[in-house]
């Protein structure tokens, strides 16, 4: 029976494989992905681990905002902690993203207060699963919302 570290490594490996498949499909289909993400706007964020220095590519759903602004949500499926990519983006302040066939630089900022709440409610209306994530995370954290503005 595998130990805790081995189980985690297997899960992380499967998650990395899952993301790699989504990224390949995204690029092959000009930013469109099927399956559980069919019809959802997708983005790939390019970020660097704040501790490891390792380069990462993470596919996410996003919410289009005004003037080309993009909102992303650090839900981690409602886990008690925010995903690592959230901390990487906050530390970096700017990253590159892929939307459709285009790759470009963006400035990263955390959205708070009424603007955050409005963006999150719009995302819940578009994808009700985010409401479930918020319920799971309640008591631990409020799911952060980040705005990505073209640099």
Question: What is this entry, summarized?
Answer:
This protein is of the alpha+beta class and 151 residues long.
Structure notes:
Helices cover 38% and strands 28% of the residues. The protein has one domain (4-150): Pnp Oxidase, Chain A, CATH 2.30.110.10. Strand 5 (94-99) and strand 6 form a beta hairpin. The chain has helices at 4-28, 84-92, 113-126, 129-137; strands spanning 42-48, 55-61, 63-64, 70-73, 94-99, 102-111, 145-150. It has a seven-stranded antiparallel β-sheet with strand order 2-1-5-6-7-4-3, sandwiched between helices. The chain is α+β, with helices and mostly antiparallel strands and 151 residues long.
What's the arrangement of secondary structure elements?
Layout: H1 4-28, E1 42-48, E2 55-61, E3 63-64, E4 70-73, H2 84-92, E5 94-99, E6 102-111, H3 113-126, H4 129-137, E7 145-150
Antiparallel strand pairs: 1-2, 1-5, 3-4, 4-7, 5-6, 6-7
């Amino acid at each position: 029976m595998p130990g805790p570290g081995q189980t985690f490594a297997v899960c992380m490996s499967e998650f990395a494989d899952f993301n790699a498949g989504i990224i390949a499909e995204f690029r092959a289909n000009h930013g469109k992905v099927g399956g559980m993400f069919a019809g959802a706007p997708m983005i790939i964020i390019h970020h660097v681990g704040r501790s490891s220095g390792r380069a990462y590519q993470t596919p996410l759903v996003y919410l289009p905002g005004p003037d080309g602004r993009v909102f992303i949500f650090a839900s981690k499926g409602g886990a008690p902690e925010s995903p690592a990519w959230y901390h990487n983006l906050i530390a970096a302040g700017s990253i590159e993203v892929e939307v459709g066939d285009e790759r470009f630089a963006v400035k990263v900022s955390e959205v708070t207060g009424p603007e955050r709440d409005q963006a999150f409610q719009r995302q819940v209306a578009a994808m009700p699963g985010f409401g479930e994530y918020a319920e799971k995370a309640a008591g631990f954290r409020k799911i952060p919302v980040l705005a990505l503005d073209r640099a």
